[in-house]
Specification:
- This protein is mainly alpha-helical.
- A two-stranded antiparallel ribbon has the order 1-2. A two-stranded antiparallel ribbon has the order 3-4.
- Helix 8 packs antiparallel against helix 9, helix 12 runs antiparallel to helix 14 and helix 15 packs antiparallel against helix 16.
- The longest helix has 27 residues.
- The N terminus is likely disordered.
Amino acid sequence: MFRFNLGRGSFSLGGCFARGFCFLARRLFLVTGSRFSLVLSALGKPSLFGVKLEVWIQPFTSPEPVMTARTKRRISVIFLCLFFAISLQAEEKRAKPPKFSGTETKGIFFDSVGQAIRGTRPTLAELQSKRPGGASTVAQSKPEAGDDAGGVWDKLISATSIEDEIKRVKLHYDSVVTQPGPFKSGGYQDARLDLMVLSSLFAIITEYGGDVRWKKDAAIARDLLGRTAFNCNEGTTQVFNEARARKDDLQDLMSGSGLRSGKAAETNDWASIADRSPMMEYLENLRESLREATNDEADVKADPDAVRRSAELIAVLGKVLTSEGMDDWDDEDYTAYSKQMTEAARDVTRGLELNDYDAIRKAVGAVSQSCDACHGDYR
């Protein structure tokens, strides 16, 4: 057996490695006629890549023995044998991974996920009925007449529906305000409608109690869009340029840049925000969208968000159309019809929460009835 001291430890060669080294050493001695010693030094931790072997041949007779090419090859073989032998001997021993039996972990972990869940999965309506502001709260609370508190808007429409509708109308407005020619040929009327809808939605945001996007710039957006909307009564070049400026403002707002600073009105003046005639046209569009989205139960399940958004926007319009400053806002019969429409639209949302298609269908019919009755008296 050969033992090598390596500064920080020692390694032993035995078995086939020792016998092989003896054989090679004897062959080298017979060829060179020299006596030699091998000195090994280790750098760092001994391993396959961390051991540096330095070999000195100390001759017996000559201070500088001359070695042939064949002798050098044999020395190389010895070097490689030592290198791999030390690497194998220096390999770290690792602990075997632990093994667990089923009896040792029984009672600690569940055998399946189903065992960890108790009871039945609650429905969305049940969850909302257990928290403030949920579906049941909306169903039991109705806005009082003349109540302009921000909570009224929160009860009528969700922040998601407001944001989605603003994005949708903005895209349509972009397609309308393109060139002066099409704008003058009738595009200004579509622009007027889009601007009044957007102005109304931003006015709602200013009074919205919950979190909703663009609240910081909502008042300025309301005033800018409302002013341009009322100017879009003809398709002149000046009006087109103003409408295109609003298009750029909306793009900045959507991209997060915000609107340029300016002084905005502290409260909503609905007389300068929207006009009843365009808003009635918008209402008819929403009624058509709601009808198409609720043709049958499959349509409702395919896109419940579309049903919710149309119903909530109709409910909001019932409140907008009876706000102070709008035409006939203080007419009792007109106000009664608007409230009926709002409550019917809210019933659509309640039926959606309860996954009750029959309730949704009846509520959609009630919306149409209230609108038709109002049109019969006021057209």
